[in-house]
Amino acid sequence: MKTKTFILLATCCLFTVYHVKAQAYIPFVKEGKMWTEKSSPSIEPMYSIETWEMQGDTTINGKLYKKVIASITYENCFIYEDTTLKKVYCRQSGNGSEFLLYNFNLQIGDTLAGSDCLMVVNKTVEYFAGKNRIKISLNDYTGDPQIWYEGIGSLTQGVFLHKCMTGGYEWLLCYFENDTLIYHNSSVNDSCFTLTNIQELQPKKLINSYFFDNVLYVKSTTSLAYTLTLYDIFGRKVKETNATGNLELNLSILPKSLYIYRIESNALQIRYNSKLMLNQ
Q1: Is 21 a domain residue?
Q2: Among residues 95, 51, 47, 9, which one has the least CA distance to residue 197?
């Protein structure tokens, strides 16, 4: 009798260990998600920030989709997910075509769609953005790598763009859930919503700027007009000033935060972006 009891206990313990190691699939489709990407056309260095928001449901041909609204791209996306097969589909709002966006059931050596699309070269589970997630590394026929994370999507080539197409380039900046920042790749851009690394179109010797003791100083070598615009980290305009010559702007009344400022002048044919940290 004691032997049987021991075997039963061991079996229960083994079952418990297996249950702890099992990991539930993290869905891609969920209300309240938002992604921001730094995007570029095929001709660099023209860049922009694009925002994608997953908000609201819609039914198409009896199937329930989640709406994804893009800030720039003409084609918005309706998302359908088969959580059993771990597949995510995008239906384009313009022409109604639907394609396989992600497949987290792929194994090493599998291709997403067609022999000239994406092949899985590695698949692991990695702690990323606060959770253990499936990580899939893929190469297309050009050899350009893509990295996917379960529940988030692709870090490059666009979260919602067709994965078998090339041309423009996108880098995931930030990922939010219900307005909570989950992931931010600050090495690509300091801000989630405003570009902070645009190069000026003309050398800075015409207009120089620096920040000291809560005062933003602008030094101009000409008498031509320019505009200084200040933004917060969410891209909201905080202050705008038209000036000629030198300018001193006291910012001590603003909340402590990172800000981005833009100096631009049509007369000087110049546009310059930079950032400052208010620490008062």
Answers
A1: no
A2: 47
Cβ within 8 Å of residue 203, ≥6 positions away: none
pLDDT of residue 222: 81
Residue 22 belongs to a domain:
no
Q: What is the number of domains present in the chain?
A: 2
The pTM of this model reads 0.63
Give the SS3 label for residue 47. coil
CB atoms under 10 Å from CB of 255, counted, come to: 9
Nearest to 30 by CA among 71, 67, 58, 62: 67
The CATH number of whichever domain residue 217 belongs to comes to 2.60.40.3080
For residue 274, give its domain range: 207-278
> Taking the mean position of all CA atoms in its chain, how far away is CA 201?
26
Say which DSSP state 221 is in: S
* Residue 63 and residue 159 in one domain: yes
Whether residue 93 lies inside any domain: the answer is yes
Is 190 within the bounds of a domain?
Answer: no
Strands (E), the chain: 33-40, 48-60, 63-70, 77-82, 87-92, 98-103, 118-128, 131-140, 145-149, 153-154, 169-177, 180-184, 207-212, 215-220, 225-231, 237-244, 247-250, 257-265, 270-278
pLDDT, tens digit, for every residue of 234-267? 778 899 999 998 999 999 899 888 788 888 887 7
